[in-house]
Amino acid sequence: MWRVILHSDGTVRCWNNSPVTIVKHVKYRECCRNLACRIGGHIVDRCSEFVAYGAEGTSAAMTCATCGCHRNFHRKEEQIQLVCTCSSHPTTGTGGGA
Prior knowledge:
By secondary structure, this protein is mainly β. It has strands at 4-6, 12-14, 20-31, 74-84. The chain has one domain (1-82). It is built from no helices and four strands. It comes from Glycine max (Soybean). GO terms for molecular function: DNA-binding transcription factor activity; transcription cis-regulatory region binding; zinc ion binding.
């Protein structure tokens, strides 16, 4: 595990003042749409993962090809990765670290 420093201006830097890039990965998982909402029940489709119906940037990309629901009905999973550009970091270079 390595340390990063969050500066007051919003920049993130490594312990040796090298810039750190924040990479955000977003995946949409199973469908959580309640199909029995009108009758007071709770039944979900549970298709396993969102699969875009069209190309990225089109309106069809917001529709799931598996269940036909809008992407917002699928559980959103975010992963944030910090990528250090310094050569002395154990995971990005050959020097330093235990």
